[in-house]
Every structure is written in C-alpha cells, then in structure tokens.
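User: Can you predict the 3D structure for this chain?
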Amino acid sequence: LVDATNIYIMPSMNPDGYEKVYKALEGSCEDESCRCRGTLGRGNSRGVDLNRDFPDQFKEVPGHKPAPETTVIMDWIEANNFVLSSNLHGGALVACYPFDDGPGGLRGSYYSKSPDDALFRD
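Assistant: Here is the predicted structure, written as structure tokens:
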C-alpha cells in the first residue's frame, strides 16, 4: 500500500495556535488533555481562525481575503487528487462530511448534497 500510494501528512495547520496554548498552559497540565479546552490557540499569530477561514458554499463575505496559510492549503488541495482523507481535530468528538452545512448555517435543517452524495449515504 505504501509503495503504491501518495501519503501526505500535515501535522498542524495552525502551529502558531498550538504554540500559543502550549506556552500559556506550560506547567499547569498533568496531561495533554487539558490543552484542548476553550478557544485559546484557535487563531494564528495574526488572530485568524484558520479552520473557519475557508470560503463558504452558501454565503460570500464581501472583501474577505483568506489568510496566506488558507490559500496555500486550498492550492495544495486543488493540486492533488485526494481519494481519501482523515482529519484529527482536538477538542470535540465530531464527524464532518463534505458540504455538511446549509444556507441557514449549521443550525439549519437543510440537507446539503455533495457531488458524491451516494457514496457517503452507503
């Protein structure tokens, strides 16, 4: 499998935020679990929440220019034909699917099909 598959590993999309939390809580944690609480570290060094910086499929934010990190990730995704991906995200137990929101945001009850909806429904 490893010899015939391209495998990409991105340890962190926001190392600035991780470092901010690590320094703020240094010496106050008995284990790593206390580092995954609250919103400290959500933003990068310029205060941009990179997880929420990507374009939304339903609403356009006039004048919004994605952070350089976001643009690099978007270009990387477009340049590679990913067949499978996995995302490890601290702080919550969640399953995310492509196009998993609706015109009313996450609070809406709108079923939003992805182009490969049948695959996800199986």
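Residues 8 and 46 are 26 Å apart (CA to CA). The two ends are 24 Å apart (CA to CA).
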